[in-house]
Amino acid sequence: MAAINSNFLKLKAGYLFPEIARRVKAYSEANPAMAPRIIRCGIGDVTEPLPPAVVNAMHEGVEEMANRETFKGYGPEQGYEFLRQAIVDHQFAGLGISADEIFVSDGSKCDTGNILDIFGKGNVIAITDPVYPVYVDTNVMAGNTGAADDKGAYAGLLYLPCNAENGFVAAVPETKADLIYLCFPNNPTGAVATRAQLEAWVRYARETDAIILFDAAYEAFIQDPAIPHSIFEIEGARDCAIEFRSFSKNGGFTGVRCAYVVIPKTVTGQAEDGSRVPLHQLWSRRHSTKFNGASYPVQKAAAAVFSEQGKQEVAALIGHYMGNATLLREACTELGLPVFGGENAPYVWVGCPAGLSSWDMFDKMLNEAQVVITPGSGFGSAGEGYFRISAFNSRENVREVCRRLKALVA
Ligand SMILES: *Cc1c(COP(=O)(O)O)cnc(C)c1O
User: Fold this and answer.
1) Is any atom of ligand 1 closer than 6 Å to the C-beta of 259?
2) Residue 186 CB–ligand 1 contact under 6 Å
3) Torsion-angle region of residue 76: left (phi > 0), alpha (psi -120 to 50) or beta?
4) I need a labelling partner for 295 at 20 to 30 A (CA). Which of 86, 92, 260, 327 fits?
5) 15-29, 168-182, 210-224: range with lowest mean pLDDT
């Protein structure tokens, strides 16, 4: 008999995106003439091709692999020095982060889930509501929660409600937390945290001996120069924070796969005997045991994101998506709906028209405008009454979505 990890049975059967797919399929089958009109503004995936600097570097990497003299087998598990150094120079200059505190991987989704390997049982885990569902589900799998209630909230997690009153930035809790997941710019709400708000979190973490798991996957979308891009811009964060970064949303690497974790050597957790252990040491051991490095052509391509040409091309990509976000914000504002996000993030978070739930609005948009959005309640019960529109699309599609939105609620 092979006993299973019964924690998996507590998971709410990944209901958000499968349910969206089910409703879109049902609508298409019932209305075949309308099916070609459907525009998807739901899933958070990039749409534009890779920047040419990235493509060229990847081609070069493949060429090197094709020749005996330059062929490479296994690389360093932690990532090639050339990439880790480029990351430090271009993303963390002046923040006291060194190249050996960077761990290159094949994605932030895996990293944010895998990080739980190095933490023990019994931690109080704080999670914002609404939230990127990966943080919740990986804690369920790891046995860090009880069962879910009928609203999908798991016993044992400390939920931090985010709402219009707090600008979708969770306040520091009154009670003790050990691990805190923060994501800024936020998916799904598009909210960003000010320096003062991040300072409050770092102060809380240091005072209560907590660890902040900071997901900065969307930092490249920040337009406001006053908003920090990294938690390590906050004094004291080197002692209490881990940061997750990805090439998915800036370089368009969602199908290429490359990301990294930043773990300062000064962040520690507590062993059973009360001694302090650097998390860097544990993650290094975990990473080199369970991971064999990201592919060489991919790391070469990732480094090209920081070349002069790469930076310009990435800036143009971000500009494209943020132009979309501006149009979507304007269209929703014109409808008289409450609009959040979309100014420093590729997601626009919109309050539903009076009387409509998140799923009501999803159905209305699908049936009347053939536009697929994401119902806010799918990200947590505090997301009820909102929907998320993604700016990841062609300009043409976004203009069409705006036209249909205006025709819709009016
Ligand atoms: C897209 C996204 C990531 C990046 O995931 P990858 O696995 O690197 O593609 C990380 N966090 C959030 C919140 C995201 O939306």
Assistant:
1) yes
2) no
3) beta
4) 92
5) 15-29
Question: In which order are the strands placed within the sheet that holds 157-161?
Answer: 102-105, 259-262, 241-246, 211-215, 179-183, 125-129, 157-161
Please state the atom number of ligand 1 nearest to the C-alpha of residue 111.
7
Q: Which residue has the tokens 């811009």?
A: 233
Ligand 1, atom 11, residue with closest C-alpha? 217
What is the span of the domain harbouring residue 246? 54-307
Determine the atom of ligand 1 nearest the C-alpha atom of 187: 13
Do 332 and 193 share a structural domain?
no
Q: Are residues 281 and 318 in the same domain?
A: no
CB of 249 shorter than 6 A to ligand 1: yes
pTM of the predicted structure, to 2 decimals: 0.97
Q: Please indicate, yes or no, if residue 6 is contained in any of the structural domains.
A: no
- 283 and 178 together in one domain: yes
Residue 284 DSSP code? H
H/E element, 304: helix 296-304
Domain count, the chain: 2
Across the range 4-25, mean pLDDT stands at 89
Q: Whose CA is nearest to atom 14 of ligand 1?
A: 217
Strand, coil or helix: what is 379?
helix
Pairing of strands 386-390, 268-270: unpaired
Q: Cα of 69 to ligand 1 centre, how many Å? A: 36
Q: Is 364 in the pocket of ligand 1 (CB under 6 A)?
A: no
- In the predicted structure, residue 281 carries a pLDDT above the cut 60: yes
C-alpha 183 to ligand 1 mean position (Å): 10
Centre of ligand 1 to C-alpha 410, Å, is 35
**What are the C-alpha distances in Å from 209 to residues 11, 177, 333, 365, 374?**
29, 9, 42, 46, 36
pLDDT 10s digits, 38-74: 999 987 899 999 999 999 999 999 999 999 999 999 9
CATH code, domain carrying 34 = 3.90.1150.10
Give residue 410's pLDDT: 54
Q: Is the pLDDT of residue 409 over 90?
A: no
CA pair distance 143, 165, nearest whole angstrom: 33
Residue 46 CB less than 6 A away from ligand 1: no
